[in-house]
Amino acid sequence: MLKRFLYNFFSSFLILMFIFIFQTIWLFIDDLAGKGLDIIIIGKFLFYLLPNLTEKVLPLTVLLSSILTFGTFAENYEFAAMKASGISLQRAMLPLVILMIILGGVAFYFANSVIPASEQKIYNLRRNIATVKPAAAVVEGVFSDVEGYNIKVDEKYGDNDRYLSDVVIHRKTNLEKNNTVIKATGGELKSQEGSGIIQLVLSDGHYYEEITPKSGSGKDNSPFAKANFETYTINIEVPDNVQDLEEERNVRTDKMKNVARLNKDIDSLKENNVKVVTAFSKNITNRMGAFLPLTKPDSLPAQKTFKKSSDTALINAKYRKKLLKKKDTTPVENLMDLYQEYQQIQIMSTAKNSVSNILNSVLGKKEEIQRRYKIYNMHILSLHKKFALALSCIILFFVGAPLGAIIRKGGLGLPMVIAIVLFLTYYFIGVFAGNYAKEGNIHPILGAWLSTLIMLPLGVYLTKRATADRGLMDFGHGIEKVKEFFRGFRKKNKVIAS
After folding, report:
1. What are the tens digits of pLDDT across the range 377-424?
2. Chain centroid, CA 198 distance in Å
3. Tally of CA atoms within 13 A in the half-sphere of 280 that contains its CB
4. 95 and 29 in contact (C-beta within 8 Å)?
5. Among residues 129, 198, 207, 327, which one has the fewest Cβ atoms lying within 10 Å of its Cβ?
6. What is the rounded (10 degree) CA torsion for 44, 48, 51, 55?
7. How many angstroms from the chain centroid is the CA of residue 255?
């Protein structure tokens, strides 16, 4: 059984990896095709993607190979012979269970060491491709963002795609607005070795720019500027233009970190987020003047001040008269009634402006805080996904093995369909749970483990039924219960009628 399982495992792994590689090529075809890249660079790119694909292929391979192995054994009545010899299903599964535990450890090693390194390599390679080959940053037929310019070309041709035709450029302002449009029938990309500047020389076109007036009245006087040109040169700064494609950058995201680094960064991110939220809440509280402690007026300071004067009795008498004149026992229903009309308008205007400013501050800070907590959630999600991947291999084995023994079908027909349906269920639950966890709708730990936890009771249920040699669904037992219910109901009616 162990040899057959290993054969099914490796053959299924190679077939599924081949399929996923082709799917990946289609996903990244825009980054690779038509950009003058060497076949070696494309091969390195695909090689760096293999560990990331293993994270998806491995659980499906375990599920499919277990269904194939146990389905073939059950179809050829080998399990019946084993049971007749006194070998139970659990005893037959024991070597494979030990193998799955080892495979889970290997999967955790990949998730903790190999996949973060491959993610780093992929990021560096994609970034350096656009830097070393500037023409690669401009894609035909769509707008490409290149150092503050949105550039669209209909066709690239010539050596290294240096010549362009039908060029449309939108230049961004500091406020990320496209106030300038440049159109040209042709263009050429020029660069020199060792230079960090690329010259885009446009020919036979026109230039249009909306003028931003200093005041609202000036907009009608100079709405725009327009000019035609024979040649127009744009200098585009591309940093590190001559760097090697294999140059490493110290960029660290959650997918590029191992367990130790994730644990350390999670604590740091949590502490920083708490500090940011606390400081911002204190700032808003102080601006609002809310939650300030109220103190009762104390008469001792006034009396001490009066005693310093030589005319203490006279001053105290005058002070009491003023208090009696100002004292008004009429209850006030509205606090604003204590002020005159012009003062009420001033108070309302000041309050409105204060509330508006505070709301703008809160809305402006909200996006930053949400982004901070999203990064924090993504780190927790990545940490627990490494452990969930290892455990999912074991749980999916306990789903596939008894399921193959129950359906008693080998080959790549029905087992393949069942495996794909179960894996898609497992995969999409994980994707949706991960997206919800990133946005903070559910806890990140639950988002990482939800799909595995759903498969766990299914594995327990199928293992019990396969051990008891029962079918997938015992419809006959349920039908007999329904029949007995109606039989008893008829007997009661007959007794009542008699």
Report:
1. 889 998 998 999 889 888 888 888 888 888 777 666 777 788 888 888
2. 34
3. 16
4. no
5. 327
6. -120
7. 11
What count of Cα atoms within 13 Å lies in the side-chain half-sphere of residue 430? Answer: 22
Residue in this structure with the two tokens 């327009």, named with its chain if needed: 226
237 forms beta bridges with 197
Max CA-CA distance within the chain? 119
Name residue 208's beta-bridge partners.
181, 226
DSSP conformational letter for 241 = T
Q: Which residue has the tokens 């660290």?
A: 252
pLDDT of residue 131: 53
Within 13 A of 492's CA, how many CA atoms are on the CB side? Answer: 6
Q: Which of 9-18, 19-28, 467-476 has the highest mean pLDDT?
A: 9-18
Query: Which tokens sit at 235?
Result: 């200098």
* pLDDT, tens only, 92-136: 778 888 888 999 898 899 888 888 888 888 777 766 665 555 556
Is the pLDDT reported for residue 462 higher than 80? yes
Cβ distance 124 to 214 under 8 Å?
A: no
Give pTM, 2 decimals: 0.64
The structure tokens listed for 336 are 């604003």
Q: What are phi and psi of 183, to 5 degrees?
A: -125, 140
For tokens 């940490």, the residue is: 383
Could you tell me if 369 and 43 are in contact, meaning their C-beta atoms sit under 8 angstroms apart?
no
Q: Which two structure tokens, joined as six digits, stand for 443?
A: 């806890």
The CA distance from 93 to 392, in Å, is: 17
Residue pair 255/115 in contact (Cβ under 8 Å)? The answer is yes
> Which pLDDT belongs to residue 312?
47
